[in-house]
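To: structure desk
From: M.T.
Subject: fold request, one chain
Message: Could you run this one when you get a chance? Sequence is below, nothing fancy, just the single chain.
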Amino acid sequence: MSSRGGVARMDNSSPCHPVIYELDPVKNTNKINIFLFSGSRNQVAG
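Reply: Done. Structure tokens follow.
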């Protein structure tokens, strides 16, 4: 059950991505790639 709570929290972070992207589009390119990869892996583990 705890795992499910963590996944729900990640959804809330989704809207934050576009905000950071606008702040640093160049540095975000790398960060977004890592974030997406981490998110995908989290879903698989869950």
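Reply (cont.): The mean pLDDT is 56. Let me know if you need anything else for the meeting.
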